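## retry 2 of 3
previous attempt timed out at serialization; input unchanged, resubmitting
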Amino acid sequence: MYPRTPLESIRLFHDELTAIRRDLHAHPELGFEEVRTSGIVAGGLEALGIEVHRGIGKTGVVGVIRGKNCDSGRMIGLRADMDALPMTEDNSFGHRSTKQGLMHGCGHDGHTTMLLGAARYLAQTRNFDGTAVLIFQPAEEGRGGAKAMLEDGLFDTFPCDAIYALHNWPGLPPNSVGINPGPMMAAADRFEITINGRGGHGAHPYQTIDPVVVAGHLITALQTIVSRNVNPLDSAVLSIGSMQAGNPGAMSVIPREAKLVGTARTFRKTVQEMLEKRMRELATSIAGAFGATAEVQYERIYPATLNTPQHANLVADIATEMIGKENVVRDLVPSMGSEDFSFMLQARPGAYFRLGQGGAESGCTLHNSHFDFNDAVIPLGSAMFCALAERGMPLSQ
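## retry succeeded, writing output
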């Protein structure tokens, strides 16, 4: 017999979920390689009598749970990511990674576990009118797993009316929830600028067209895009992460080519377009002024993660009822990081929210080699998924 609320129910098998989470942590897998993880997910869903669909987006898994009634025809999607990161773990606890150079450094092991917990409760109770679609997504970490699932017909096969996802957040206290009714994460773009000059002897620079000098001027000029072209009421970031030119062992050789690689982050499409345009203009004009040429490759990788107000407010209302308004942030400051759940939010309305887990104050942040998901927040994350299904598809009174 289940208690009255999802949160109370899931607390009854919290220990079992913790064991699953730690097993997943010990066996991390990269994006599109989550064979063991997706097998555990699919097997767990099948053991609960849930309809399972495998191979959506390569290693993605979808579970389908029909409510006590399905007369409404409603369908709500609940998404968790499964992949790990190519980084070495420096923890020493018993469930640390068993794979050298691989680690669950972003908490996706916890996300997968929480959705499995929700699956167990929803399969037992089915207190909703419609269909809950549990989406276990591969390859969130830069490999476009959400896009791959969409290209495999995710929303054609499962035409969700709304879609929800969460992410653990060390910057919020444990068992709190943060959300924004608009932007949550920025668009992520990648740029590569190749400067072509004329190489030569370092003792005779007048005989060359030095691409390193061009790169230096361009690096400085690119920073003026955000400071002088972007409206200060908008947000944008332009960061150069790599500069490559010449050979460190050839001190007297001026290279023929220099290359800059970096990322741009924006929330609004108009800002994104202006940033790319100004980057091309600056690269071309500055290189030309020195007699060089510049080629710009600009790739839009992930769009901005934008919540729809109606669904964001539902998340906030549910969280307020569960944990009290003092533990809910309704106007969470957006992050300039990115998230490929944005592809799903482009296709369907919905919301992406933060589940506080603490740890930031001690340096245990995302993508840190000492990171570990906080198992204490598993019941709340699972219960939020359950309540979104029940409140989004209520049974008739």
